[in-house]
Amino acid sequence: MGAMPFSEFFKGKKTAEGRHGASPDGIGTSEKVEIVEEIETSGAFGFWNTDKSGNIAYLSGWIVEAMGGDFARLAAQPIQQAFAPIDGETDGRSLGLKLGTRKSFAGLAVQAVAGESAVVLRLSGKPLYDRAGEFQGFRGSAIDVTEEFRAEEEANRLAKYDSLTGLANRHRMEQRIDSTLHAFKSAKRAAALMMLDLDKFKQVNDTLGHAAGDQLLQQVADRLRGAVAGRGEIGRLGGDEFQVLIPDLDDRGELGEIAKRIIQILSQPYSVEEGRCSIGCSVGIAVAPYDGVERDELTRAADLALYASKNGGRGQFRFYAGDLEHEANLRKRMEEDLAEAIEAGHFTLEYQPVVSLADDRVVALEAQYCWADEERGRVEPETFLPVAEGSRLIVPIGEWGLRKACEDAMQWPESLLVALHVSPVQFESNGFIDSVEKVLEKTGLDPARLELRLPESVLLGDGSKVDNAMSRLFKLGVRLTLDQFGTGLSSLSYLRRAPLNALRIGGNFFEPIMGNELGDIELVRAVVALAGAMGMETVASGVHALALMEELKRLGVDQVCGFVYSGALTQEEVLEQIAGGEWIIPPSDNGIQRATRRTVFRKIGLIHEDHYYEVTLRNLSRTGAMIQGLEDVPVGTMFVLDFGQGQLAVGAVRRTMDDTQGIEFEQELVDDGAGGLCTRHRVSPYELAAAGVPLQALPPGRYTLAQGLNSNPSFAQFKLSANAPRQQAA
After folding, report:
1. How far is Cα 683 from Cα 651, in angstroms, rounded to an integer?
2. What is the 3 state secondary structure string of 156-219?
3. What is the pTM of this model?
4. Number of H helices, E strands in the chain
5. Which pLDDT tens digit goes with each residue over 181-225?
6. What integer pLDDT is reported at residue 169 of this predicted model?
7. Cβ atoms within 10 A of the Cβ of 123, count?
8. pLDDT tens digits, 593-652
9. What is d(CA 640, CA 651) in angstroms, rounded to the nearest whole number?
10. Cβ atoms of 480 and 473 closer than 8 Å
11. Strand 377-379 vs strand 270-272: parallel, antiparallel, or unpaired?
12. Crossing angle for the helix pair 521-533 and 546-555, nearest 10 degrees?
């Protein structure tokens, strides 16, 4: 049932202004009613009226229609239930409050809360009284401002949100970060900021066009929403830069898992109208108040972490650390020195034996790059290869390494393979397959003796190009191994059709975890089963313990590489070994000691009761550490290790020998995104502020706020060994 016509409602309605009849301007009342009805029918202007109880007595027909067309239902409710005030309009007071004052009002913007069409009206009204002064209700006018309001609303939305992806834009993210940090200071709460940059996005724009790039960005936004799962606000800063603000999270273990999930999800192939494409993602993470208490500080910290992750080889995440700026300067200098080292021929290759677990026979030699720098001395591959990859110097280094490895292998027995790691940058470079073919032809090496180890990330490149490259390598006859399998990036469907000979399990699988000193053995078991189902061999690297080797043998792993058999050897040492005939290496527990000697870290702090010492960190794992510098320390002693920048790890001495102790942590360390480890939590700047230190990002230096030491040692001071500096008071 619709509303009654204005003329019907007007009949018999006498007011204090006068009675029906001619007006002073000569226009009769009936003509006025006709004029008003024409205006009302046009929808440009409307009228409303309430009874003394505030219930709707009259609404113009076009308003009723917009609200569902049932005037009887509307008339049964107070008018303030039918219209909701628009946020931010006028003085922000509701229609009910306006009516309650029984005073005239004008220009109140409200939105209908019934019906499919959310009509927006601007109401004006005044109270009605009879001749006795009794309140009779309200009467007023309504103007339809829906289009104007929606246009303004869209303009406001565009001012806050990215028009392409619907994510928050740079301006809104700045406001959100400012407001969050301001509110969280007083509440002593944490917030994490992630900076994201898409890898190889420019390549998509250049090859498939900007329309494909826009479609890709929209899909990236959708995937980000799924990865973050409502835990924070996501913004697009422009181009291929994104930002994620996550409140109330400072656990770097959990943040690292979110970053890994984002990298994994964004690295999966995309389908756009112009074809399929793949990109990557690098992430930098900073946490307030640890890394900054103001927006500029926190954003800069996250930017530095992002820069470090991109330079570390892309497809990684990094947490901010105070030495990142220094690291950037060192990286730039290393790039310059690497370029000179290529020209000067300062690179060599060493070879680590790969042994068959069936009979301890050496079946392959894995080539490892070595750089002998005049100033730095011997530089480990894990130090300079990420720099070389980030600067694309890995391409000429890789070409040299391929040629040198094949030349060296020609001096070995034909039964020995040579394995060479291939960087994604190297694999995707122009002419890589041609260079492999030329080297094989020039050196005369049997292609079946060359094993190329490809990281999972190469499978995420352009599908047709990857398929073509893999097909050409297969036709050449070289062996193909998927390296570091298990990072979660490769597609099982692709594994079924790719011409792969083996899956290589990385040493990160064998890092001790709580409950198993051998690492994630159940996951290794699953990889072995998968490889067996697909007719592939399995190769385990980084095996340093006899017990681990025996377990891998029991699980059915085919080949092993690690200190349990041998470290890397020079070409001269290899030739000495093969001169004696068949090369068999018995496994040995000496590998543990050799691995430990190669793991030398740095000076760190150690806290015990009210004393602070400086010791040498010799070995570090997720569950413990080996330190050197204190003598006569009983087993069971509780320490706090200070790794710097508020990172404190509580642990107990489990083994002690002379001035060396093995420490077991109460809580596991977590990945720092750069191949290292860090603590989940840090000393809070809020705790430091409570102790009288000004609230600021964590400065470098030592921290002696050791919480949770429940030890009751029989001594208060340790004897310093000759390897440790003098004790410092806390």
Report:
1. 16
2. HHHHHECCCCCCECHHHHHHHHHHHHHHHHHHCCCEEEEEEEEECHHHHHHHHCHHHHHHHHHH
3. 0.64
4. 24, 33
5. 998 888 889 999 999 999 888 888 888 888 999 999 999 999 999
6. 92
7. 22
8. 444 333 445 788 898 887 888 998 887 888 888 898 998 899 999 999 998 888 899 999
9. 6
10. yes
11. unpaired
12. 40
CB 40 within 8 A of CB 46: yes
The region of weakest confidence among 100-104, 325-329, 619-623 is: 325-329
Amino acid symbol at 292: G
Nearest to 627 by CA among 675, 598, 600, 662: 662
Q: What's CA 585's distance to the chain center, in Å?
A: 43
Which CATH fold topology does 6-152 show?
Answer: Beta-Lactamase (3.30.450)
CATH number for the segment(s) 600-729: 2.40.10
Task: Note the pLDDT of residue 406.
Answer: 96
- Which of 71-75, 193-197, 250-254, 305-309 has the least mean pLDDT? 71-75
Any idea where the domains of the chain sit in the sequence? Answer: 6-152, 162-322, 347-594, 600-729
Query: Given this chain, do its domains 347-594 and 600-729 carry the same CATH topology?
Result: no
Instruction: Please tell me the class of the 347-594 domain.
Output: alpha beta
Q: 189-209 burial, b if ≥16 CB within 10 A, otherwise e?
A: bbbbbbbbbbbbbebbbeebe
Tokens 């190009």, residue located: 465
pLDDT for residue 101: 83
Query: Whole-angstrom Cα distance, residue 641 to residue 500?
Result: 45
Beta strands in 422-528 (DSSP E): 450-455, 479-485, 502-505
CA distance 41 to 49: 17
DSSP annotation of 78:
B
- To the nearest 10°, report the CA torsion of 393, 395, 397, 403: -170
CA gap 634, 654 in Å, rounded: 9
* CATH architecture observed for domain 162-322: 2-Layer Sandwich (3.30)
Q: Report residue 291 as tokens.
A: 């890394």
Helix, strand, or coil here: 350?
strand
Residue 679: which of 265, 319, 226 has the closest Cα?
A: 319
